[in-house]
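S., here's the first fold you wanted:
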Amino acid sequence: MNKLFLVLIFTFLGASAFSQKDRAQAEFKEEVYNFGEIKEDGGKVTHSFSFTNSGGQPLIVHNVRASCGCTSPDWTRQPVQPGKEGFVKATFDPRNRPGNFNKSVIVTTNGEKPTIVLRITGKVLPKEKTIEDIYPRKMGNIRLKSSHLSFTRIAPKEVKTEELDLVNSSDEKVRVDFEGIPEHLSIKMVPETLNPGQEGKIVATYDASIKNDWGFVVDQVYLKMNGQSNRRNRLSVSATIEEDFSKWTDEEMAKAPVIEIDDRVFDFGEIEQGKKVSHAFMIKNNGNSKLILRKIRASCGCTAIQPEKKVIEPGESTKLVAQFNSRGMSGRQNKSVTIYSNDPKKSTLLLRLTGSVVKE
């Protein structure tokens, strides 16, 4: 019996070993390839990982998946017979990807080891930046880093200064002036005249107390070149005007107003095109001082806002009636109403009107 048991064990082990050897198996000559240093503007680079099917059955590469869109793979599509070779290619695009990289290529086969991870590594040397790269926005004979000058956040009574870099990209002198400057903004060119190739700055100062507005606001200013006007030379100047409550004490916060709204989303369902629908949002002050609705702004002109009052005493409520006009609209609609208030925790609150407009 013991001899019979041993014979059965060896037979099983031999069959198992034969079965494993009989399966397809991809043996790669290398699983990691280092491209070394490559140039960002030198174009795509490709490496072919070659493998041999060391098993006893045809090897099928089911899929090859790269870890990012910058790496595009290719591979042997036909079954690889035992003892024959196949390949998996990895192509890397270094454009806009300066610095070190380490990307994986996941290979899925019918082999004994069904998943194999290959890697390509290297370092992308950044391309030398041109004047177009540094100053991408062109206006006449000058180029700017941006056509948008942002003051980001600014307090209601704050005066803030920001700068925007530019360069004279022409072969002649350029004097830069400005027109359409609003009262709350002062803007100048430093220096006023730029020699060919010379860099300069637009220096702008924003007075929020003169602007006397709330939330995100945008103004348009126009650049004149050597005294000539061109409405295409437009510079957008933006700011988000809001109170800074970060330095308030616990006592001040305890005395603050608290805005509460019963439901911030109203779904008007389906309405016929050309019809109007209204909804009254109920606003309550659950705080300990007056709630002031600084500003109410709709996302489009099709939504009219009619607040009953803008100053709400503690414990009191008011209605904010929003009316949606579906004229010229069709399909699913999502409109918003933004409320700016003196609630230190919810100074900006968003309401929504949703629904569908159907044609008769």
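And the second, which I think is the more interesting of the pair:
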Amino acid sequence: MENVNSLFKNALRVAVAGFGAAIITAPLASTGALAQVAGSDAFNLPEDVSFIMEQAENRNDRRATARVNGNIITGTDIDERLALILAAQEIALPEEEVARVRLQVLRNLIDETLQVQEASAQDMEVTQEDVNSSYERFAVETRGMSVAEMDTYLVSVGSSPRSIKRQIQGELAWERLLRRNVVPFVNVSEGEVTDLWTRLQESRGTTEYRLGEIFLSANSVNSQQVRSNAEQIIAQLRQGGSFVAYARQYSEASSAIVGGDLGWIQLEQLQQPQLEAAAAQMTAGQLVGPLEIPGGYSILLMIDQRQIGMADPRDAVLSLKQISYNFAPGTSQTEAERQGAAFIAAVEAMSGCGTADADAAAVGATTVDNDEITVRQLPEALQGTLLQLSIGQTTPPFGDLTDGIRVLMLCGRDDPQETAGPSVDQIMGQIEDERINRRAQRYLRDLRRDAVIEYN
């Protein structure tokens, strides 16, 4: 169970890591893409629904707070959590999107409250000392800040330490509940793991994919509304929104806690023909969806592709020297062209990395070294060029009059070793994680069903 336990050890760190992406996560819950939802026939619903009373335009505003089994979620709780999300966005969200995020925040806070209440009822209450310790560890180890600096940052974006600590409390409570009530009852046989490992070995040399997924559950009653929501999310992503942020906030799949990242998989591991067919046609960086699958809709992002068991040239570790020439403020176009041409000529005359520092200084250029950077860490436009270089050669110059012009000189390269793919233990961990998440979804669904929730 080592891999399963590591999931929970890292859950809090992942959930609150990276204010640049999104602090808020959906609770660890679901593999909703695999859930079968009963149709509307179970309710004997009419084809033409006619409401007796019209919905008030400001209904969402009036239902901004809630009482969950007696515990109050205030408007301030929602505002502070919402502020974290908005601060993490690279683009300003339209008013209707903010309203939709606000409703999701309320749902997340309700789930957190239910998780904390359940842990307390089972004598696994999370103490304030536990929360403060985790908060301090996150501030220092993950953000490189003191607690005081983290407090100041949160206040500066319109939130507060209390909001993050509330989320930490929910994460710790859920971890404890799953450890006791779910993890011990999940079993994976050696036979099914061995069978999957064998199939993977037989597929050596074929392509595997690193995918991101946002899954939204739907049934026959709300399918159109959920699809519309998915289309709005896609529109925001295409305008520059963070996929990780939206996955953490909206996705109902188990991968939400890690920003929707499914890791390296083969297409058949998706277990959905619609997703397999779409992913097979995608290229790195491509976004597709919404894709209708049993139980709802999925949005897919192709993060990367590679050959199973084969070394990926982009994993080569390079030793690079950046040689830069900056133009003085006010330099005319003509003079910049003359200086640039002289710099390029000087670079072409260089005899490799050994004399590059002195040669660069002679023409007023500067150098910066990086001896441990992989090809895939570099902009895509540079990756192919660098893979074709020999030691001592440089890329074509790039830049402009504002930032100056630069070249990268290759000073060394360590090629990657071939990999055998996931081990038996890793495969077992993946299957266990999936089954834990299915049970966790059902567990949370039961808590919601039994809850007494009053909206204000």
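Why I say that: The radius of gyration is 26 Å. Residues 95-121 form the longest helix (27 residues).

Talk tomorrow,
H.
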